[in-house]
Amino acid sequence: xxxxxxxxxxxxxxxxxxxxxxxxxxxxxxxxxxxxxxxxxxxxxxxxxxxxxxxxxxxxxxxxxxxxxxxxxxxxxxxxxxxxxxxxxxxxxxxxxxxxxxx
Length: 103
Description:
Layout: H1 2-6, E1 12-17, H2 23-36, E2 41-46, H3 50-57, E3 66-70, H4 77-80, H5 83-91, E4 95-99
Parallel strand pairs: 1-2, 3-4
Helix pairs in contact: 3-5
């Protein structure tokens, strides 16, 4: 997100798919952390399925691009399920994939 913001003005919506009870707190913490780094970020909880979450939130009048954070290849269930390709087909825009930090 910082690299994208460095290229020019940017607003972000962090969409967290999932229905687990910790999701609202995880989303709040993530948004606060990103804002502390100077990013203009809003948070949104989505459906448990990541493709359904993006499809429900997607509005081409509101968003220009989709950046998807996944685990590394070999550990990512989303990559095995072709989530990036499915999101591209649902939104009509290319999905930029970044590898998230693992703990």
